[in-house]
Design brief:
The protein is α+β, with helices and mostly antiparallel strands and about 60 residues long. It has one domain. Helix content is about 20%, strand content about 20%. The chain has two helices and four strands; from the N terminus they run E-E-E-E-H-H. It has helices at about 40-45, 50-55; strands at about 1-5, 15-20, 25, 35. Strands 1, 2, 3 and 4 form a four-stranded antiparallel β-sheet that branches. Strand 2 (about 15-20) and strand 3 form a beta hairpin. It starts with a strand and ends in an 8-residue tail after the last helix.
Length: about 60
């Protein structure tokens, strides 16, 4: 299972990451683990389930 992790309040300068509850670790996409926006994440994602991830994101991930 994938979990969206909001990192905005952690004072590390990034917005979010993904946690894999089966493997019990943060996911990595082409070497990156943390992202600020959906557009940034989608640049690094290279799988077939992009819409699955999109459905797990809160609205602030998609800037207007």
């Amino acid at each position: 299972m994938k979990r969206f992790v909001d990192l905005r309040g952690q004072d590390i300068g990034v917005g979010f990451a993904w946690w894999d509850t089966v493997r019990d670790k943060f996911e990595s996409f082409n070497g990156e683990q943390v992202f600020d926006t959906w557009d940034e994440f989608s640049l690094y994602y290279d799988g077939e389930n992009l819409e699955r991830y999109r459905g797990l994101c809160p609205s602030w991930v998609f800037p207007l």
